[in-house]
Design brief:
- The chain folds into three domains: 129 residues, Type I PLP-dependent aspartate aminotransferase-like (Major domain) (Aspartate Aminotransferase, domain 2, 3-Layer(aba) Sandwich), CATH 3.40.640; 47 residues; 103 residues, Aspartate Aminotransferase, domain 1 (Alpha-Beta Complex), CATH 3.90.1150.10.
- It is α/β, with parallel strands linked by helices.
- Helix 1 packs parallel to helix 2, helix 3 runs antiparallel to helix 4 and helix 6 runs parallel beside helix 9.
- The chain contains nine helices and twelve strands.
Length: 323
């Protein structure tokens, strides 16, 4: 567990091997006293997380994406509702008839967001790997600070092995970004994809020693400040310039393009310039049409501490030229 004097997460935080494992672990604790519970997932959400949760829980879906949310009219007493903070933005407040104790908030895109202290929820959880340079890591904490809390799961051998492989893939990518041409981009990209796929087969476990040691050395708040500073610079340059809208975010620059063709063209232009935006998230064919349309038009440009103001100016120039 985490929550020491220098730890930005609250006292009693559980450190686990991934964000999806953190969610499934919370669900498993709830299932001990609510075996018939369903888990309500947003319709616009990471498919890897959905598939992982489906393995051990009964799932329902409600309409939710970064542009529109329709919470369930009622929530059965046993059920849990997962509310995502899309890109770190403050989620819509749930209706007062939804009990906070049944609400789980995914704060992956900004674990340190100020609004988390007052949002009505029973648990906060998420991945640490999306905002910190870690080979594994997730977290979960109860907002009621129950003591004693549930016993954390043990560290697993498979999780520790995945962490070591991920750390090596991250080192290869870093060396390539620093100019080491002995690594082809496809090599480290494939390594990172294989590492990512490992988490689908790993049961919830406590964070490995390697990841925990790395986490203890990271200046969380300074890294967040750098990301927000870069984001403000980039947003100021491109907002209102191109054929897109800029969504509220603390995770990175999130663009919703006017069409999927525009998003595809912009994605190719950025990649050709060694800027690698994320597509969050690809959805299945049976997803709601509005969600699929939004997914096809959305690009997220990273603004984290790996990049300087000069990098952000360069990215802004690419975007403005492509507008």
């Amino acid at each position: 567990m985490a929550g020491g004097e220098d730890d930005p997460l609250p006292s009693g935080t559980y450190l686990l091997n991934s964000g999806r494992a953190a969610l499934r672990w919370i669900i498993s604790q709830h299932a001990r006293s609510h075996p018939r519970a369903r888990i309500w997932l947003p319709s616009y959400y990471c498919l890897d997380v959905c598939d992982y949760v489906c393995e051990s829980a009964s799932i329902a879906t409600y309409c939710s994406n970064p542009l529109a949310v329709a919470f369930p009219d009622s929530l059965p007493a046993d059920d849990l509702l997962v509310v995502p903070s899309y890109f770190g933005a403050l989620p819509q407040q749930p209706p007062s008839h939804l009990p906070p104790g049944q609400i789980l908030v995914d704060t992956t895109h900004d674990p340190l967001a100020e609004w988390t202290h007052g949002y009505p929820a029973g648990w906060m959880f998420g991945s640490l790997r999306k905002t910190l340079p870690l080979p594994e890591g997730g977290y979960a904490y109860s907002t009621s600070n129950r003591s004693p809390g549930p016993k954390p799961p043990p560290v697993s051998r498979g999780s520790a092995l995945a962490a070591r492989k991920g750390a090596e893939a991250m080192r290869r990518k870093t060396r390539w970004l620093e100019g080491d041409e002995s690594y082809r981009p496809q090599e480290w990209y494939d390594d990172l994809q294989r590492h990512e796929s490992c988490f689908a087969g790993l049961a919830p476990a406590s964070m490995s020693g390697l990841a925990r040691e790395t986490l203890g050395r990271l200046p969380w708040r300074a890294l967040r400040r750098a990301r927000l500073k870069n984001l403000a610079l980039l947003r100021g340059r491109v907002e209102g310039v191109g054929d897109w809208i800029v969504l509220p975010s603390t995770f990175g620059l999130v663009l919703v393009c006017s069409s999927s063709e525009t998003a595809d063209r912009l994605h190719r232009t950025l990649v050709d310039s060694r800027v690698f935006p994320a597509r969050l998230w690809p959805l299945r064919e049976d997803a709601a049409p509005a969600d699929r349309d939004l997914s096809a038009r959305l690009l997220m440009v990273h603004t984290d501490s790996r990049y300087s103001a000069e990098h952000m100016e360069s990215v802004a120039e690419i975007l403005c030229t492509s507008a």
